[in-house]
């Protein structure tokens, strides 16, 4: 349920990026870029935790 809610919010963010109001458009692009960076960090953190857990199993 949370994922679909997040998707809806990001769809709304996409529509704001084409807003005729230049400031809103620029801010929505900044927010979208920040969202992408956070998601990338989350993926990297997950990968690192998986590697750490694998190392722990070996010792």
TrEMBL record:
It comes from the Archaea. Keywords: Coiled coil. Residues 24-58 form a coiled coil. It comes from Nitrososphaera gargensis (strain Ga9.2). This is Uncharacterized protein. Residues 1-11 have a biased composition (Basic and acidic residues). Residues 1-20 are annotated as: Disordered. The keyword Coiled coil applies.
């Amino acid at each position: 349920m949370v994922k679909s809610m997040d998707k809806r919010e990001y769809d709304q963010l996409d529509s704001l990026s084409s807003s005729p109001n230049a400031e809103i458009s620029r801010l929505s692009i900044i927010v979208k870029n920040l969202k992408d960076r956070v998601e990338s960090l989350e993926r990297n953190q997950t990968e690192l935790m998986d590697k750490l857990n694998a190392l722990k199993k070996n010792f």
